[in-house]
Amino acid sequence: MDLTPFREKIDALDQQIVELLNQRLAVAAEIGKAKRGSGGQIYVAEREDAVFRKVTGLNQGPIKDDALRAIYREIMSAAIALEQPLLIAYLGPEATNSHQAALKKFGASVNYHAFSTFADIFTAVEKGEADYGIIPIENSTEGSVRDALDQFVGSDLKIVAQLYLEISYTLISKSPLEKITKVYSKDQALAQCRMWLQRHLPHAQLIDTASTARSVQIARDEEGAAGVAPEIAATHYGVPVVAKGIQDKANNTTRFFVIGKKPSGPVGNGRDMTSLLISLGDEDAANSGALLKMLKPLADRGINLSKIESRPSKRRAWDYYFFLDVAGHHDDPAMREAITELKQFCTMVKWLGSYPVAG
């Protein structure tokens, strides 16, 4: 079969694509220049969401929407790099789930820096050492990442975007399965693989580490040790994979927040989510029906509650904060009215951010 005519056609199309991409990036560079002059944000979550919806709406195949989104992610990453270099903080070291989430959200053209704790990520963004941070906030198997949630209590940073990452874990070790006596990983990762580990390594000691990638570093250097981490970590650190897909749930997914100094604008059309942090105070919290009273200003205005979680305030015994995710943007009139009413009887109503629903 002579493929020459097809290849010539592809070559011609590639030339057009490259020319159009460079034209698009040149316009993006002009936008960046205008943003810098006016002090505008380089990364705009609501604009990103609009672009993704526009291009997938134009798509008539055969390319799938997910593939088209991945292509445009890298196009926008290259555009951001031309507008202004960005530094993204994530929970490291390299090859963690947070690292993968950061790459999925911001692409390969921006700069990244690994930090060892959630507090370090928040501090880096607050001090301007990083433009944005990305943190895991909840997992579909194990629930909320509480250490990450707690950081919002004392921080003025805003949630500007969210994304979801499907999580798959591998057992990584230089030793065969029957000779593994210790399994290292982040507490959340060990919990998400609990049943598999009990079934296949019932006598192994499970040891918490600062990150999944750190567990692979230990497994690389310690005989009889294994790490639980994404498969990319095995490749990155040069340690063999003993078993793949060891997470207990097939649809294991983690939700991540992008945090920054300036809030995101509204997307509209029911595509915004708002996160709030509320404290009832000692007197109200002790009263019967206090929680119902807190939710009533939202319910009265038809604002849908998608998540509520309590966390100890750590100020005194039995004192709690409530984290809420509700549908809508902070600037919506109904949302502003509800927040105003909440402030009349709650000791604290803190807006954590509004952001596009789609991740």
UniProtKB/TrEMBL annotation:
- Entry's Gene Ontology BP terms: chorismate metabolic process; L-phenylalanine biosynthetic process
ACT domain location: 279-356
Reaction catalysis annotation:
chorismate = prephenate; prephenate + H(+) = 3-phenylpyruvate + CO2 + H2O
Q: Which residues form a coiled coil?
A: none
Tell me the compartments it is located in: Cytoplasm
Which pathway?
A: Metabolic intermediate biosynthesis; prephenate biosynthesis; prephenate from chorismate: step 1/1; Amino-acid biosynthesis; L-phenylalanine biosynthesis; phenylpyruvate from prephenate: step 1/1
| Keywords, comma-separated and alphabetical | Amino-acid biosynthesis, Aromatic amino acid biosynthesis, Cytoplasm, Isomerase, Lyase, Multifunctional enzyme, Phenylalanine biosynthesis
Which residues bear the site annotation Essential for prephenate dehydratase activity?
Answer: T254
Instruction: Show where the Prephenate dehydratase domain sits.
Output: 87-261
Q: Gene Ontology terms, cellular component aspect?
A: cytoplasm
GO MF terms listed in the record are: chorismate mutase activity; prephenate dehydratase activity
Q: Name one Pfam family in it.
A: PDT
Q: Where is the Chorismate mutase domain?
A: 1-87
Q: What is its EC number?
A: 4.2.1.51, 5.4.99.5
- SMART domains reported in the protein's UniProt record: CM_2 (SM00830)
Q: What does this protein do?
A: Catalyzes the Claisen rearrangement of chorismate to prephenate and the decarboxylation/dehydration of prephenate to phenylpyruvate.
The record ties this protein, via PANTHER family, to: PREPHENATE DEHYDRATASE P PROTEIN (PTHR21022), PREPHENATE DEHYDRATASE-RELATED (PTHR21022:SF19)
What is the designated name of this protein? Bifunctional chorismate mutase/prephenate dehydratase
Species name? Nibricoccus aquaticus
